[in-house]
Amino acid sequence: MAKPEGDLDPLWLDLDWAIGQMLLMGWDGTEVTPQIRSLIEEHHLGSIILTAKNLKSAHQTAKLVQELQTIAHQAGHPCPLLITLDQENGGVNSLFDEDYICQFPSSMGLAATGSLELAYNVAKATAQEISAVGVNLIIGPVLDVLTNARFQPIGVRSSGDDPQEVSQYGITAIKGYKDAGIATCGKHFPTYGNLDFRGSSLDVPIITQTLEELSLSALVPYRNAIATGRLDAVFIGGCGIASATMNVSHACLSDQVVDELLRQELGFDGVAISECLEMEALYQEIGVKGGTVRAVEAGCDLILLCKDYNIQLEGIAGLKLGIENGILSRERIFTSLRRILRLKSNCTSWAQALNPPGLSLLSQLHPSHLNLSRQAYESSITVMRDTERLLPLSKSMEKEEELLLLTPLVKPLPASSATKAIEAKNSKKNIATEHDKWSHRGRSAIMSGEGVFRDFGRSLARARNGKLLHTSYTANGVRPVHENLILRASGIIIVTADANRNLYQSGFTKHVAMICSSLRANGQKKSLVVVAVSSPYDFAMDRSIGTYICTFDFTETAMQALIRALFGEFSPKGTLPGTLRKSKKVIKSRQQWLVENYESERDGNGLDDLIRAVAKASAPSLAFLRTTSAASFEISSDNVEQAHFVVRNSSTKALYGFCATYYIKDAGIIGALFVEPAKRNVSIGRSLHRRALRHLLQHAGIQKVQLGTAYPCVFPGIPVDESGALKSWFASSGWDTQFPRTLTTVIIKDISSWTVPDGLTQSITRAGINFDLIHGLGNAESVLSHVNSLCHDEVAELYTLALHETRSCGVVRAKNAAGKLVGSVIICSPGSPFRLKVPCLQAASGTELVGGIVAPLVEPSPQATLVLQGLAYMGVRQNKAHRASRSVLSWVTDDSYEALLGMGFQVLQSFEEITNSPDNWTDLS
User: Fold this and answer.
1) In this structure, how many other beta carbons lie within 10 angstroms of the beta carbon of residue 597?
2) How many angstroms separate the CA atoms of 556 and 452, rounded?
3) Average of pLDDT values for 374-391?
4) Closest CA to 900 of 760, 738, 690
5) CATH for 742-913?
6) Is there a contact between 888 and 683 (Cβ–Cβ < 8 Å)?
7) What are phi and psi of 116, to 5 degrees?
8) What are 915-924's pLDDT values in tens digits?
9) What is the Cα–Cα distance from 680 to 640, expressed in whole angstroms?
């Protein structure tokens, strides 16, 4: 038997070298220090984390990274250093250079644009810029779901509070980063989106959700990102878990979190990176030596020790001692080493590492990236309310009227010239709250006083070409100076930044709003505009604030976009993320769109484009959409009436939405409902849904209305969505969703290695169950009678279609010992035209051959499970005979699929079919 390390370069058999690869370290300073040089040369450090304290400019960064890589190369490192940093955009950027590095919106700001295409372009541009200076791993994207959105320090660094929306934007960011050639690291596992802060600086923030609750929310983006196969690393958070199902003091030191939850349950086999073990709570409680060993024991591959040289040496000594004590085995070290080397091989080489393109490439990219930055910020600016029609200010205020700007005292964002100026003066400021202590740990905290919004005020005055009054406000509340300025001004703009966590801002704003309301009642003009420049949750639900704008960060770039929005240079189109978007009650949400009948000749190409856009924006569980086309929805049957509807741009011919409907006997069916991802949440779906129901309900004999159809089998029902968002949407549209029928599609991914379970054939024989295969309609009467007795009418149409396809389809019948038909299933060979109506049977790649086992129907009896297993077995045999590489069984009702899991099938996707009475809708006329 080969040794576990047999595939490794002999150099790595020296455990000092292997340990060095398992460490991620940094330092303070803009030049290489003797300490970091020693770590690379003598301790074989394999990964470096850079922060804003290391980076002065793009040119200096490229030179610094090149020097670090040269040191490693000359020291005999077999592969380059991993060079990583945080470059989330918005308020969290390690590298800032106004001349070469572009500022882009935060994660939530990008989600506010509603454009996955824009999010992809921003991610790719960001990665291109940091790659140009030699960075090969980005600590991102943020995959945290804001389960408790209003009080969490992660704030706008998250895409929002909807797990599926966070998934979509996270996966899009990963694609952008990867397409630019750098490795990715999702963070912060399991979540920083709902933390409970206990108060002491030595207390680690705690997750109080159960595993079940986490699985339905926080873990969804990780599950979906891992399923793409493009997530290289996961950053394990420095938080505890205290719930009924798990009690963990430090997530990154827990095998329950890393090995069991991340690796076993979610299937992640990439690099796990620990939170910095220099954090005070861990340092004081466990010590760094023990912490490094525990982190590796838990399943972490890269151990982060941020900047303290003595602590870093202690961490190295800890790993060596762990091996000496037999706590860590050579095999465990080599498992992590292989993962790290695999990551490095995918994102760097010595040719790249020693010659970063630097300013030459950045100069080429900068003009287009500046345009992208402007577009992204303008698309993100969100006007949540403007009930008094104050915007743009150029129309609601005269030049001679005075405008008052009131701004809070805040820390400037790392990616800003204000920060750079203050750092140059070595100014310091204590951090105010426990939230801030935790979220800014290891990072200098700076307060700029009134200076952070000074440039904004000047630019505002220039744009208005009129008088501007500007002062700040503090926790001291509304002072006489504020009252005097409010009396003078005709318009007041109040800026808030995380008012939910800085409650003085909320109190100040409400006090000013009350003063303005009182003065308006006396006939004075007091137009009030509130701008949330960080969290959009500050006054999202407070309708007493009539004009409310959100920018999602307060970098200089964001503030300039805000000014253009305030004065009408563009019309803000941003929408609030997640549940805020769903609850937003504005004119836009009441829009009615013109719905037209679908015409295949006119709309077919547009529908194909729409399906591709939806597929690109969907979670991996809906991968079948990539093989769906407009033809999938067209059926030819005298028994089925079909009518499809579209919302379209008659000028560009683009489709914004599509709805497929079918009517068979007494049942009206909605078989699909698509909306262009960039056009969601503006009532296109509701307009299509209303039109579809009006069409179906006009049939005099209609007895039921159904969501999902087996023919064509694109959507047998609502795709099971961990967040429940889709189900909630239909529930709010009049559907009773309490009692769905679950339809599950399962798969055997490799038929060649599959074997029939022990004892199955013997059990079938003993039960007297026989199977035969029929083709064509000649012998089909008993089958169709059997189908009609067990299932909906559209399933009989599916069977009829299969029996017509005599060359590529057949039906397997199961009969009991008395010769009675007790089960049936459709068998479809690879490449059959039948698969066009069941897209999950179509291969994702041209070389893959997929065999189909479709619509198993089994008569209820004590032998029903055995009959189902026998039909599945016969189907796999037929697929194997047709040289299929995998078998897809679509679909199995309710919990029957569990009987197939023991046969080697795996769940591919699940749907919920919903059937309601037409009486649910009485107001559609």
Assistant:
1) 12
2) 9
3) 93
4) 760
5) 3.40.630.30
6) no
7) -70, -30
8) 999 988 876 6
9) 30
